[in-house]
Amino acid sequence: MSLDVSPALLEQAERGEVDEAEFVDCVRTSLPYAWEMISSLVAQLKVDGGEFADNQVPPPSERERGQLLRALASDAIRGALQRHFGVRLAFQNCHRVAVFPPEGSADPAYTRFTSVRAQLLNQSPELRDC
Questions:
Q1: How do the pLDDT tens digits run along the chain, 130 residues long?
Q2: Does 18 fall in a domain?
Q3: Which of 5, 66, 87, 118 has its CA 20 to 30 A from that of 55?
Q4: Pair 77, 110: CB distance under 8 Å
Q5: How many domains are contained in the chain?
Q6: CA 115 to CA 118: how far, in whole Å?
Q7: Which NCBIfam families match (predicted)?
Q8: Residue-wise burial string across 42-76, b where 16 or more C-beta atoms lie within 10 A, e elsewhere
Q9: Residue 8 located in a structural domain
Q10: What is the pTM of this model?
Q11: 62 in any annotated domain
């Protein structure tokens, strides 16, 4: 599923002027599972504090997994979500999404989470085809 782009937003893009808030709303309505996961992780980070908040529960179906992949694999969508929520996003596999404070790559927790070592340690046979 791609984004469900309204005619008005498409017209903006054709003119070359896209309102990012409208783009973010398009992402919110088009990718509700990804939006809800990221929103809840942002809220968790704000409430609990700490270095980051992450999800370790696989999506309930391939549809939801696809939403996460689309949201986090697209530089435009990922960047807009990071700016909207004021966080840095990291993605380790088909479902392990984490939100970090906006300092991002200078943060040791972010560096550990996105390291080759962490990627290897997060593998399992159940996730091979996710």
A1: 489 999 999 999 999 989 999 999 999 999 999 999 999 999 999 999 889 999 988 899 999 999 999 999 999 999 999 999 999 999 887 678 899 988 755 677 777 766 566 666 666 655 545 5
A2: no
A3: 5
A4: no
A5: 1
A6: 5
A7: SCO5389_fam
A8: bebbeeeeeebbbbeebbeeeebbbbbbbbbebee
A9: no
A10: 0.83
A11: yes
